[in-house]
From TrEMBL:
<dbReference type="InterPro" id="IPR003660">
    <property type="entry name" value="HAMP_dom"/>
</dbReference>
<keyword id="KW-0472">Membrane</keyword>
<dbReference type="Pfam" id="PF00672">
    <property type="entry name" value="HAMP"/>
</dbReference>
<keyword id="KW-1133">Transmembrane helix</keyword>
<dbReference type="InterPro" id="IPR021796">
    <property type="entry name" value="Tll0287-like_dom"/>
</dbReference>
<protein>
    <submittedName>
        <fullName>DUF3365 domain-containing protein</fullName>
    </submittedName>
</protein>
<feature type="domain" description="HAMP">
    <location>
        <begin position="230"/>
        <end position="283"/>
    </location>
</feature>
<feature type="transmembrane region" description="Helical">
    <location>
        <begin position="209"/>
        <end position="232"/>
    </location>
</feature>
<dbReference type="Pfam" id="PF11845">
    <property type="entry name" value="Tll0287-like"/>
</dbReference>
<keyword id="KW-0812">Transmembrane</keyword>
């Protein structure tokens, strides 16, 4: 009987483990993606903070120096890229780029997949954010992109070369980064965040949860086995042995035991009563 109960329990537990494992895996996967996306969003926000700091605090300081030589340090988008390049040295799997179709600085030129994203922003001006996953040489990464839009303040440097400061032309030439139109989306800020650490975390939590559940099921199995043995199997075996002796006419056989679960105890009591009646009946016959 124990074998059969154990088999049934094992099958039920195995099915339960598979179901739990599927649910846990997909939940953790969703969490990991959400976590990485939140990280990417925070990084894009910090790029915006760097830009506004540069515009309000650095640019005014460099105003007079700009007359003699162009200081890219005063350019908000330059500041953000430089900051993230420093971060990239420490964390090579994180990257930030101001991917631009027609950039002033060639390092900012959009690659194929980045140009596709910029094109999406250009085609649909209501799109505020685009995200997705990509395989990189450093492993799977999530990218998050937001459009870069031109406003009136940009035209002094990015419209016609003739409108741009001579010092800027001296440094960057007059071929790239011009001809931008007001309100045009010229590029996208693209941040790339690795999945590796979030995925490692998810795998660890999954392992811990499944191990804990497996341990719980094993304890349940042990407790069920011990209870069935003590409450049913052992007393029923004794009852069977005594009933055997009684059936062979052994009047010295012990009383049926009172232990075990209530049903087994009731059975024992019934056997004891039956045995007494049987004894009496035999005595009457013999007497
Ligand atoms: C004072 C001139 C100036 C103004 C004003 C200016 N930029 Fe620029 N911008 C530059 C220069 C110079 C660079 C290249 C910096 C570098 O070396 O990376 C640049 C770079 C950029 C880049 C990175 C891609 C590229 O072209 O290399 C973006 C995007 C950009 N600017 C957008 C803007 C926007 C949007 C505005 C208006 C909100 C603006 N800029 C205003 C001078 C300017």
């Amino acid at each position: 009987m124990l074998l059969r109960i154990n088999l049934i329990l094992l099958v039920a537990f195995a099915l339960g483990m598979v179901a739990i494992s599927l649910i846990v895996t997909s939940t953790l996967q969703e969490n990991a993606t959400r976590e990485v996306l939140a990280q990417a969003g925070l990084m894009l926000d910090s790029a915006a903070a760097i830009r506004s700091y540069t515009e309000t605090e650095i640019d005014p300081l460099l105003d007079d120096k700009m007359a003699t030589a162009f200081r890219p340090q005063s350019v908000p988008f330059y500041a953000a890229t430089q900051n993230f390049l420093t971060l990239h040295k420490e964390h090579p799997d994180y990257s930030y780029k101001e991917a631009t179709l027609n950039p002033t600085n060639p390092r900012d030129r959009a690659t194929d997949w980045e140009a596709d994203i910029v094109q999406r922003f250009r085609n649909d001006t209501t799109t505020r954010e685009v995200s997705g996953t990509r395989d990189t040489p450093m492993g799977k990464a999530l990218y998050l992109a937001r459009p870069i839009r031109v406003d009136a303040g940009c035209l002094g440097c990015h419209s016609l070369p003739s409108a741009a400061p001579a010092t800027m032309l001296a440094r960057y030439g007059n071929e790239h980064g011009f001809g931008w139109q007001p309100n045009e989306v010229v590029g996208a800020q693209v941040i790339s965040v690795p999945f590796a650490s979030a995925e490692a975390n998810a795998a660890r939590v999954r392992r811990e949860v499944l191990t804990a559940i497996a341990a719980m099921l094993v304890s349940v199995l042990l407790v069920v086995n011990a209870s069935i043995y003590v409450l049913v199997i052992r007393p029923v075996r004794r009852i069977a042995r005594i009933a055997d002796q009684v059936s062979l006419g052994d009047t010295a056989a012990a009383d049926f035991p009172r232990g075990g679960g209530p049903e087994v105890a009731a059975l024992s009591a019934a056997f004891n009563r039956m045995r007494k009646s049987l004894d009496k009946a035999l005595q009457m016959l013999g007497g």
